[in-house]
Amino acid sequence: MIDDLISMLPYLAHQAAFGAVAAAGFGVLFNFGGRALFWCAVAGALALGIRTLSQKTGASLEAATFLAAIGTSCIAILSRRWLGVACHAIALAGCIPMVPGAFFGQALLGYMAVAADTSGQSVAQLVASAQAFIRVISIVGAIGAGLAIPAYLLRSRQF
Amino acid sequence: MNTQPDTTEIDPADHHLLDRIAHVTLRAGAILAQSGASVRVVHEGARMIAGGLGVEVLGIRSGYASFEITLARDERTLTRMMQIGPHGVNHRLDFAVRNLVLRASHGGMTPEQIESELDSLQLDTPRHPPWLVAIATGAACAAFGRLLGADWLSFVPMLAAASIGQGIRHWLLGHRTNVFVVAAIVGCVAATLGGLGARLVGSGTVELAMMASILLLVPGVPSTNAQTDVLDGYPTMGSARAVWVIMIMVFAVTGLWLAEFVLRIPA
């Protein structure tokens, strides 16, 4: 068990590091200030770290994303003392690297290919596209629910 | 704008005051909505300002492009509507306006003072320079690419392509080009550049590089805000946001599809 954990550390570090870069990069686009940007990077690393660990322990991508979102949201709310009222926005920025844009792209490109197909042999493509689309809905739903549930339960609704 | 009050025989001075309050309340709400706040926050902000100015809010209605409020003071009521401009995400402006709303809710400010502070916030709230936003967005897309499994060789092409894409988006939006058309153009240019660059450096993940180069167009905040709005009891706005997200993705992927056609990448 410990050996497994040690062997996956480089991959975990890779995912967390690029999660941090993606969250901070989008934080700049969303006009977060300097200090908040640092916390966006931490939230991104945390979210990707939890998701990678969950997937390695057998969770599906959707379940792992939900756990990552709920974990990031809980930690952000509990750290409100340091993060201030922006804790919800920081948790959201941290979850942005998990938004399944690539799956959405795959699904739409697949549907376009099906529409252009005249051979009548596009069942496999149609199934793959539908699967990608269902994954998009599940993952976006997992992120939204994971971020919202702690805010409702911990009565930490932002203004 | 209609300047008739809902109730008749109103003192013009009272009517003018109620009008000013409605205007400043709507303006604060509109800025919050345009900065990426959820509908609940927008409504709460409007109620707080109105409460601080000694007025009761009888009703608020938010659409994707407009915002309506009915205020009451003593026996008088007034309904006003305001257009909401393009929706975006501006964290610092969002929280600066929330801070102003909190101060206004404690009372002691006039509508004119709040209006003037809103003007200052819109003008003076700092923004990162466009070149920094472009590079940061490029770095974010390249990081997305790595998370998706793109190889190291394609890292710099993804970064460069997405940075250029963000630069083009900034320029086109500044020239008031339609946001969906912008998504298609940026999707096509960024994916072509990312794919071409990745191919030139000998990457084995050209398609992933193309996909990652357009991820700057994925509306992550609106997609989670759509759910927040539905959860908070505003399904109309939530649905409008969801449709907007789907439309943006359709246009962005059309751009990507064109890029794949240009680079002769099989579907």
TrEMBL record, chain A:
Entry's Gene Ontology cellular component terms: plasma membrane
Topology in membrane: Multi-pass membrane protein
Pfam families in alphabetical order: ThrE_2 (PF12821)
Protein location: Cell membrane
Residues that span the membrane, as ranges: 12-29, 36-53, 59-78, 90-112, 132-154
Coiled coil: none
Keywords on record: Cell inner membrane, Cell membrane, Membrane, Transmembrane, Transmembrane helix
Positions of the Threonine/Serine exporter ThrE domain: 16-151
GO biological process: succinate transport
Keyword Repeat attributed: no
Family: Belongs to the ThrE exporter (TC 2.A.79) family.
Protein's recorded name: Threonine/Serine exporter ThrE domain-containing protein
Source organism per UniProt: Rhodopseudomonas palustris (strain BisB5)
TrEMBL record, chain B:
Residues covered by the Threonine/serine exporter-like N-terminal domain: 24-259
One Pfam family here: ThrE
Principal location: membrane
Compartments (UniProt record): Cell membrane
GO MF annotations in UniProt: transmembrane transporter activity
Record bears the keyword Transmembrane: yes
GO cellular component annotations of the record: plasma membrane
GO BP term, example: succinate transport
InterPro entries the record matches: ThrE-like_N, ThrE_Dicarb/AminoAcid_Exp
Keyword field: Cell membrane, Membrane, Transmembrane, Transmembrane helix
Family: Belongs to the ThrE exporter (TC 2.A.79) family.
Name the UniProt record assigns to this protein: Threonine/serine exporter-like N-terminal domain-containing protein
Lineage: Bacteria, Pseudomonadati, Pseudomonadota, Alphaproteobacteria, Hyphomicrobiales
